[in-house]
Amino acid sequence: VLGSGLGDVDITITFDDTAQDTLVYRLKTVEVLADVPIDSVTITADVLTLPEANNAEVRDQVFIGTVVTITVDILPLNATNQNYTITTSNSRAEAVGNVVTFVWGATGPGSVSIIVTFEDTTVGVAGVYNFRFTTVEVVPVTDVTVSTDVLTLPEANNAEVRDLVAIGTVATFTVAILPLNASYPGYTITTSNSRAEAVGNVVTFVYGNTGPGSVSVVVTFDDPSVASLEYRFTTFEPVIPITSVIITADTLTLPEANNSEVRDNVLINTVVTITVSDILPANASNQNYTITVSNSRGTVSGNTVTFITTGLISIYVTFEDTSIGVAGVFNYRFTIIS
Predict the structure, then answer these.
(1) Closest CA relative to residue 114, chosen from 137, 136, 81, 92
(2) Quick one: which of 88, 145, 192, 222 has the fewest CB in 10 Å?
(3) Which stretches in the chain have pLDDT values below 70?
């Protein structure tokens, strides 16, 4: 009985025959708790999705050699009896603790079950969760071909071969794997640093955190028997030439550039500001230019030209990019008059 609560209690037996020693039995009372049953069980695996348990119609394929760790989550956490064991139905799989390895077995590929058995028979089917599989042989990858749409790849895995590739290049990689029924046809494409970015099979070569330099594109295969392929590159900034430019003046219309037959009249003391605009493409590599005059009949301050004495004179707009004008020069010819 509870009496004054839980604790120590002595039971003493005293005999009428004083020759017999008194016997004292010392005990500690504890409260007897009711069993806490298991409410739910969740069983998962790390490298595959388990088929529906205890369904004889559901039998998933699994490759021989697959190693899977079984995780068993039990609720409530204080359930009284959480004991379970993991076994297999035959030699096509071996269980050590929670780790199951699918193997060739005594008779080769075929049916096998992973069986999780609980001492608490209120869960599963009389305490049993039966996950059914069919083992199959691994078909190894025998050949791999990697190519891209916009560049020829350097020799793979050769540290002495590193091809140049322009920053801004976008290459789509195509990976062909044989045989077509290979068990592990998957692969991933990654890059070695920030000079290239891989999204799926598309690799973009970019400026990166530290500018142009070395970068690798690596193709890694799911089939562990196939070595990764590393393609090495050196990125560089491409020279993007100017394709067109518009040159105007604020107080007059410029004559045709670079035509020695065209020479317009301009009044002495005219002040004109030259505007260079619409340089295309907008990302042209070198957009620098200077404005000068051919002689002392005029002066230049930045983009402003002043005609100061009569006679022949030219305004030169000279670009560092020599792909436009005449070797980078636009020559506008005038005759200064009073």
Answers:
(1) 92
(2) 145
(3) 1-5, 29-33
Rounded to two decimals, the pTM is 0.57
Task: Count CA atoms closer than 13 A to 16's CA, side-chain side.
Answer: 0
Q: What is the DSSP string of 148-194?
A: ESSSPPPPTT-TT--EEEETT-EEEEEEEEESTT-S---EEEEESST
| Contact (CB, 8 A) for 103 and 64 | yes
Residue 84, beta-bridge partner list: 118
Q: Looking at residue 42, what DSSP letter applies?
A: E
Q: Report how far Cα 99 is from the mean position of its chain's Cα atoms.
A: 30
Question: Which residue from 263, 329, 325, 336 is spatially nearest to 299, judged by alpha carbons?
Answer: 336
Radius of gyration of the chain (CA): 43
Q: Which sign does the torsion angle of CA 169, 323, 320, 304 carry?
A: negative
68-103 confidence digits (pLDDT tens): 999 999 999 999 999 999 999 999 999 999 999 999
DSSP state of 105: -
> What Å distances lie between residue 308 and 160, 292, 298, 312, CA to CA?
64, 14, 5, 11
What's the one-letter identity of residue 82? Q
What is the Cα–Cα distance from 304 to 333, expressed in whole angstroms? Answer: 16
What span, in angstroms and rounded, lies between the C-alpha atoms of 102 and 68?
8
Query: At a CB cut-off of 8 Å and minimum separation 6, what does 62 contact?
Result: 48, 102, 133, 134, 135, 136
CB of 330 within 8 A of CB of 322? no
Prior bond of 76 cis (ω within 30°)? yes
Return the pLDDT at 31: 59
